[in-house]
Amino acid sequence: MTLLTSHTEHYSLENSLETLHQKSREWLEEIAFWQDEIDTFYMIAIKIKMDHITTNIKDEVEKTERNLVRKITGNELYELKKAVTDHEHVLSEIIQKNQSDEQPYRDQHRNIRRRFEQYEKELRTIKQEIIHLLKLTEDHDGLNEVFKTIYNRRAVRKYKNKMVDRKTIEKIIDAGRMAPSAINKQPWKFYILNKAETITLFSKQITKAASKGILKSGLKKIIKTATESFHFSEGLSFLRAEDPIFHGAPVVIFLTSPKENEWAALDIGMCAQNMMLAAKSLGLDSCPVGLAKYVMETEVYTLLNIPESEEVQLAVILGYGDEYPAVPIRNKVNAVYF
Description:
By secondary structure, the protein is α+β, with helices and mostly antiparallel strands.
């Protein structure tokens, strides 16, 4: 009988069958360990306490749980174990029948190794999602409602086809009016679009103006900043999307200020933040839109009846979100004490 450690000349630069056999045994041990991990992850996923979670993130938590349970309860691990067991049966036949052709076994081994590598990546993803799920719930322990709203707010760029009533819009604008401003000048004014056809018209016009303006100015730094900040990894090609400016939101609020007010941009920023936090507290989502400034270079700008003395600083879009953006990693080493 041929020893497992023997080599034919054809395989002299590859691992011996004994080495491959030992690796298969390690794989089976690894599968047993992974199964324990998966069982633990499953218990965590289905036992997350929802009592202390605010309504704002319950949908996100529940969606994450569903995705996790689906991944965890899949048959991948069972199928992988079966593949390794069948693989060892092939080796057993090679030894018992003293076969000289090892190539099918070696090909099978390489295929299983690739599957293991893929499953390891999947397992890392599951671990990351478990950590994210725990942070979604644990980070909200002991926080009051203001802090919870701040931590839950996201820049949302996908919205449900659901209108926002005028009373709610007014509440959100009132929150903006409560923002601090230099010498209490309250420089902001609000111009609201809440008709789908009008928003679509403005979006198309702003898209054209923004494309021309950015390319004409050659503002590479602005493009780089927009690409990084708004996740437009494809650069200017995002402007070819169906609604790249307002993302299908049912409400668009342009915020203007007097052109000669030195501190207006800061004041408008604080006003917009108040509005977005207020929207989140009411169960809505939002996003600040800097490209909305290009509305001043469109043919439809006059429809807003904005006086010559004012300029658009940005727009805030509002609506019922249809996505759950992950929490971006925050830099926590940027506070300097003296």
